[in-house]
User: What shape does this take?
Amino acid sequence: MSSDEVPHQGVLRPAPESFLSGELISAISRDGIDHHRRGLLRGAFGAAVAAMAGSAVASDPDIVTPPEWSRTLGKPVATNPYGLPSLYEQNIIRRQSPGLTQTDQASVAFTPLQSMFGMITPSGLHFERHHQGWVDIDPRRHRLMINGLVDTPVVFTMEELMRMPSVSRMHFLECGANTALEWGNSAVPTVQYTHGMLSGSEWTGVPLSLLLERAGYDRRAQFLLAEGADGSSMTRTINMENALDDAIVAYGQNGEMLRPEQGYPLRLVVPGVQGVSWVKWLRRLEVGDMPYAAKDEASHYVDLMPDGSQRQYTAIQEAKSVITAPSAGQKLQTKGYYCITGLAWSGRGTVTKVEVSVDGGRNWREARLEGPVLPKMLTRFNFDWVWQGDAALLQSRVHDSTGYIQPQRAELVAVRGTRSIYHNNAIQTWRIAPSGEVDNVQLG
Amino acid sequence: MSSWARWSALFIAGFCCSLAAASDYPEAVLDIGRPATAEEVSAWDIDVRPDFKGLPAGSGSVEDGETLWLEQCALCHGDFGDSNEVFSPIVLGNVTDEDMTAGRVASLTDPAVVRTTLMKVATVSTLWDYINRAMPWNAPKSLSPDEVYALVAYLLQLGYIVDYDFVLSDENIADVQALMPNRNGMTMDHGLWSVGGEPDVVGSACTRDCDVDTTVTSFIPDYAMNAHGNLKDQVRDYGPFPGVQTAPVSSAVVESQPAEAAAPEATLMANGCSGCHRLEGALVGPGFDAIRERYRGQDVADYLTDKIKNGGSGVWGSMPMPPMAQVEDGAVAELVGWLLETN
Assistant: This one.
């Protein structure tokens, strides 16, 4: 499909009566519009516009009659001391996938990616995934302990942690089970549910390496256990390599303290690693010489392979991308120009290129990356497209700084089967029907 | 080199995001925080590792475990740990004698078999550690070590790993480890543990006429489209991509508009509207369904009359609608009345 041509920008002007010949109109009514007739139409518009330049136009009532907001005194400052989104945005919220989990505390609420811009996830729209509900911890009573293979087990209060040198870094956070429902078949109707366990935030806190240094960690230790203070006291084994490289013990998220659902007042940030390892309500770190086989690395978050073996301690989120708009459940209203937009990220480094296909992966063109392009962070991409009204199959594909290229679903499934639940980073396909409706499909 | 370019070069070289080392800060930084007391460490250091480091001394019988289970656990997990009501089953009879001998549960490869905890977990320490820290779900950390031993013993007995008269303790738990049905079922032979790990699947770089099968093999059937609620309500409704209506239009609405007229198809045809507009879905212009939806209940008859007579663009896209001034006033009124359901 030729989509490089940018359409003639329409101008709001009248044309002489019957500037379209009756013949053309009835040919279009009878047989629809084809390339030839589209050309004739364009010509006719051009002629009409030229002939009638400067005449009266249909007027927009929202311009002609001042709307009520232009004729009133607005609300006072601090009406909402903590600001809220517009009344007209109240349907852009986190949502659960009905029937996915049996309870609301061991569950997930997905981020509405289809309606979001840029690379930052507003904290209130950050997806939620808990195993035993969420708690709101009194920061004055919260402590962080570091023990295990250290010279001195140490304890920090929040005051002490917030006094230490702080760093702020932008990183994506993706649940290892993001897109899990799509291994076997197209299962959920929008990108919110296929890819909405994903966020990008600026995290502020203390470099984990500094805290480990403070405790005098054993240089030979390869493992770190992170433990939460909530009812589940979630534990996960962290690779010391990640811990010493870029991990953060974070209290800040997007300029304010963490939200309770995100682990207030303290969570672990392990860039590039799946969300379950970013232990929330973090209370303890233990330096160790073997992995811990915690429940969520022994019964869950293990990736079942076709031979029946389970990959344990899978952590890294490999490069992945998805078109967020237009995406399934949305509808293109008319032919013409569209900006296809989406997100790309890699747990091993930086996004170097994103390509988009509108024909199910046969042909690809490069998308524009919106800067800054940061390591282990979401990158927004945009792609110009002129929709001619035909059926289309939209895909995006990311390349990262290690040379890795995001695989097609068929390629991934050929190796991993369809039952590994976690780490599905396959290329996503959205189908556009001639009606403009978009749905979630799988190919081949 | 601009400083941005220099940074990019550093990123690519892989020094991207390593944070500063302690030596980069004044030494006084390392005075912050205080040593933990032994009592504090033992209060919080509750984890139990696969080699049983951290396991407190104690014991518990299957029989005691059964009593505790029925009192505190069965309501969510079922009397036999087989319930799927609150969480996936912990125990079901999907383990064979051969599995026990091999330490690999063969039915994990069978898609028809529910994967239970005892089929998957390789390490008995995991059960002890988890029940101790997190169960019962609604009252975590309320069990004594002996109670945890008893509950683990009961689960093992439900899985035919130990007999009914078994008493589990810190002294024999290593022997039980040697009986775990899927003890040899885990692998770390993959590239996802370390950031430098080798990927098992890499996509293709092909960009032209790539050899891919574009047959649609899976999609969500119409009847399931509304399973997540009306998608139209889950998207910003005024952007370029409003949501698809998946909920049936409620009967109340239909009843209140008994006069909803059939589309005046003859008028649409006669006046050439059908060349560009379909009743449903976009063609050159927006579908009449979308137009009707957009203006439903709004007082815009004059505006639409004007638009039809004089044409215009920019409301639905850049494609202009030509002036249809030749259409008789009566026909325009009929069409506008139909579009706004005021006929």
